[in-house]
């Protein structure tokens, strides 16, 4: 029987101490008065892990004055390879703990950066560059008064989002000729000096397709709000992903104005060419400077965008979410800008500990402490994790390695992973190691969370795990 466990990446010294514990990040959103600290207490003084954890509770209780509050504050208890814990503490509580005789060190946690708090800085559009070294964003005045029209899947908007606060904005540019079209839970006051216009187009949709929808520019699925804030959202502090990767979220042009055109409807975002053309037509007349369209396979059909380009409007399409396999880019016509996803200098490291004490690196977005596994689990290799391969193996209570390069070339990881997760959960697996081309494809990491331990690795790491499995019977 082969045993493995998954742990998040500690520092180099701590990594050597981890051998058998599975800990997947579980951090509460940071408040103004507390943040996550790592408390290191050296070698463990008890062989029984529960006693080590109890000692952590005792130390924290001495600071909080209440064991209940102490237990609520703790995020991790490091109790197998060494002794220590991670807990939500104020600065003064951390200072008090640092004076305890059993404590070796107390230091703030280092946060990995999330999807909305890093991308634009990575592209060189740093918000706070010094005046003497101003970059493109500063020279463009942060997009000041540029009007960006957003035609997007379920492309409504949730105007209450802090990303669309209009504090500090001047009057709406005089050249703007658009309107704020009212509707269900969306009236004229839903627009402001940031969201300067909004329209919705549903005449091309059937009653069935419009069920449960907001008959207004209001966003049902959240995707329209996400896209609009990514493009031009203002700065919002203390944003995190379940407590992970805290930072400041903002759009690429945070001082730009937004005009919203809702053309696709329902949770899946369905609509017709007719509605998209109606939105494009209005947007050209309304006076937008830029048009953003996140529409699958739309560019080759929207020759009408040539009229927008002729008016001096920059038209930007998404290249889709397919890949990384050949011929999966959409909307590649020569008169528009087509933007594809790329790599970024950000990871969410998670260590995989093999039974031979070898440590390998994958990635995961787990932030749920209930997913912790405190002992080794058997490893099962089921190739592509098809229904047939899973049915032929007993994976109950075990960790499954899903590694099939040939099948991965046919089915993009973002389509395969949710199916694999559901299959392995239904079969009773305790965890999943999912192999794909590149473990840095962040959009699939968002799927690797929830009710089962899950980590994404590249093919090289998967091959190493498989070799270990073959040699360890």
From TrEMBL:
Keywords: Signal. GO terms for molecular function: serine-type endopeptidase activity. Pfam families: Inhibitor_I9, Peptidase_S8. Residues 143-343 form the Peptidase S8/S53 domain. PANTHER family: PROPROTEIN CONVERTASE SUBTILISIN/KEXIN. Residues 37-111 form the Inhibitor I9 domain. This is Cucumisin. Belongs to the peptidase S8 family.
């Amino acid at each position: 029987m082969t045993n493995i466990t998954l742990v998040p990446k500690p520092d180099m010294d701590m990594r050597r101490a981890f051998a058998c514990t599975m800990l997947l990040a579980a951090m509460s959103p940071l408040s103004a008065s507390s943040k996550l600290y790592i408390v290191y207490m050296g070698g463990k003084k008890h062989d029984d892990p529960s006693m080590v954890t109890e000692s952590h509770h005792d130390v924290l209780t001495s600071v909080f004055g209440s064991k209940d509050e102490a237990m609520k504050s703790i995020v991790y208890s490091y109790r197998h390879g060494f002794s220590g814990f991670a807990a939500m503490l104020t600065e003064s509580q951390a200072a008090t703990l640092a004076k305890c005789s059993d404590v070796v060190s107390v230091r703030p946690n280092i946060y990995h950066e999330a999807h909305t708090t890093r991308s634009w800085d990575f592209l060189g559009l740093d918000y706070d560059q010094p005046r003497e070294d101003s970059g493109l964003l500063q020279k463009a005045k942060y997009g000041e008064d540029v009007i960006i029209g957003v035609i997007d899947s379920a492309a409504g908007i949730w105007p209450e989002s802090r990303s669309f606060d209009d504090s500090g904005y001047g009057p709406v540019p005089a050249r703007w000729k658009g309107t704020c079209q009212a509707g269900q839970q969306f009236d004229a006051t839903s627009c402001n000096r940031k969201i300067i216009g909004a329209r919705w187009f549903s005449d091309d949709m059937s009653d069935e397709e419009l069920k449960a929808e907001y008959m207004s520019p209001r966003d049902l699925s959240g995707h329209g709000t996400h896209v609009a804030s990514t493009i031009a959202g203002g700065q919002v502090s203390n944003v995190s992903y379940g407590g992970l990767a805290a930072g400041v979220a903002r759009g690429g042009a945070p001082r730009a104005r937004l005009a919203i055109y809702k053309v696709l409807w329902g949770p899946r975002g369905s609509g017709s060419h007719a509605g998209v053309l109606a939105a494009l037509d209005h947007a050209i007349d309304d006076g937008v400077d830029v048009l953003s369209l996140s529409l699958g396979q739309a560019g080759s059909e929207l020759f009408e965008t040539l009229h927008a380009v002729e008016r001096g409007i920059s038209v930007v399409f998404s290249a889709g979410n397919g890949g990384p396999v050949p011929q999966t880019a959409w909307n590649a016509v020569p008169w528009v800008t087509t933007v594809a996803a790329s790599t970024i200098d950000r990871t969410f490291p998670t260590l995989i500990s093999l039974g031979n004490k070898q440590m390998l690196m994958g990635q995961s977005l787990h932030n749920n402490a209930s997913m912790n596994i405190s002992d080794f689990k058997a490893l099962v290799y089921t190739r592509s994790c098809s229904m047939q391969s899973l049915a032929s193996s007993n994976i109950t209570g075990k960790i499954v390695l899903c590694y099939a390069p040939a099948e991965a070339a046919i089915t993009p990881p973002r389509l395969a992973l949710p199916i694999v997760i559901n299959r392995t959960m239904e079969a009773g697996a305790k965890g999943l190691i999912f192999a794909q081309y590149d473990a840095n494809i962040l959009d699939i990491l968002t799927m690797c969370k929830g009710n089962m331990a899950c980590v994404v690795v590249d093919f090289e790491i998967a091959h190493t795990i498989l070799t270990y499995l073959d040699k360890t019977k």
